[in-house]
């Protein structure tokens, strides 16, 4: 199952159902042809009978509407891409409380830090914790050590001895 719903594709399938209903196709047959349950096909047929093709058009995304307008969201995304250091923070790491403060400062809309991740996910960001690495880390030396020195000191698996009588196959 997809993580997000493709409303356009779902609407296209319902419009196909409407065309089938217009030709007199039964609800169970529409369900079989479009790969949906019989109950869904009957629900579509009832909506089609009540409102025609318009009754089967998409109602949009379910759930509460965003508190931010498209313009405000674009403003927040631009600031997120610029990074927290450009906003005066000491580290280059966005935390949920920082993002909530950013949203409040830029738009005046207050989000609880625990809910900011939804807004981030809707705009293509993912919550990740950066990997901590030493500043002195020398990648070429590490690669050489892994390729040359590690195999020399690594314990090799012991050779298998001749099979014992307990490991032979029974006839």
Structure characterization notes:
- By secondary structure, this protein is mainly α.
- The longest helix has 16 residues, at 7-22.
- The mean pLDDT is 85.
- Helix 1 (7-22) packs antiparallel against helix 2 and helix 1 packs across helix 3.
- It starts with 6 loop residues before the first helix and ends in an 18-residue tail after the last helix.
- Among the domains are: 7-56; 70-122, no CATH class.
- It has helices at 7-22, 27-34, 38-51, 70-82, 96-107, 116-122, 139-153.
Anisotropy-based shape: flat
Helix content: 40-55%
Low-confidence stretches: none
Pattern of helices and strands:
HHHHHHH
Number of helices: 7
Question: What percentage of the residues does DSSP assign to strands (E)?
Answer: under 5%
- Give the overall average pLDDT: 85
Largest sheet: none
Radius of gyration: 29 Å
What's the count of strands?
0
Distance between the termini: 49 Å
Structural class: mainly alpha
Task: List its salient traits.
mainly alpha; 50% helix; 171 residues; flat
